[in-house]
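Hello, quick one for you while I still have it in my head. No rush at all, and the record is pasted right below.
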Amino acid sequence: MLLRSTLDGAPFTLSLRPHTLTLGVGDTFVVAWDTGGRLYSLYRDDDTFRRSLGGSVLHKWRDAAGRHWATLRGAEAAAIVEEAAETAERVLRAHRHPSWAWMPEPPHADRARIVEALERAARFRAGPALADAADFWQLYEPIGVLPPDQYLSVVLQATHGCSFNSCTFCALHDDGYGVKTPEDFERHARDVLTWLGESAVLRRRAVFLGSANALAVPMPRLTALLSVLPGVFVDVPPVHAFVDGFTGARKSAGDYRALKALGLARVYVGLESGHDPLLEFVRKPGCAGDALATVAAIKGAGLPVTVIVMTGLGGDRYAERHVADTVSTLLSMALGPGDLVYFSQLVEEAGTAYPRLAAARGIRPLSAAECRAQRDAIAQAVRAALPTPLRMATYDVREFVY
């Protein structure tokens, strides 16, 4: 339902949907919570804030120098939570005043739902938010990154860390690898849904099977893990997961078909590049041929695939062959309308080996403009060669928050 009124003399809009409560005050302030009352986002002037379930807040803004990102924690994150909660409280105080009027005036039952949603939002202050985040970290290990179309999935961590953890550009997984037992995974899934409560309504579009490379788990163990989901969910959402080309090629089309029968709905394959010398330089296991075999097996099972390409990887030294060989590899994958290609710009992390190794070889990093040009060159060449349109999109890891 969409309602309007005024708050402290400013136009005010409330939107209550099955999965979110959104308040807009004036033209430059919008705050949203999920139906469990957890703060989701706050937009003020030209600043956007997204709270993670783990308690941090991603701050995004743009100025003459470009786009910027910062992660807020502690008192800075608490201030955003308090600002949102106080907005909900202001509406509640105004609503109690005899002169208050909704436009249109909702029925009594809807009015009760509105007040209940506002009260939940107003109770989600800094203290309760801090306690809620502590509960999150009892349930989860760090969540590295998700594809953009999966930011609102329910993440269930079947594995810990990365099965090979050798890529020089990655700082997400450096503390070993392990696979949960089916019993532990079922307990984890039940605990996650219990903790999410009504917040799960916003995140029940899909299950994302974590962690970094969950589909690398051998088939007997993987099928046992997926088989617990019907006992946890009334209706199991579609399951999505990452796999790398090297370990993904170890499964056949029949294996992926069996996983599809257990709920697997889409697979995200980290190609990074079609240029084998570049893959070797960044110490990514396998080669472009492995990714081709993986995609062929996945598509042979009737599953859609999302292929991830990194722009800027290898800098100026590898730029030309990175583009040419990646185009050739993508065109060899027989991608179609149900598939997707994500372009993810390399973000050099200070704690990784990549910047040091690149500097030692005299490799110049590509600028943001050069990365965009690289993306456009690959996309245009692929589109020009394919008989049917292929979806392509940008994937910026700096935008991720869960």
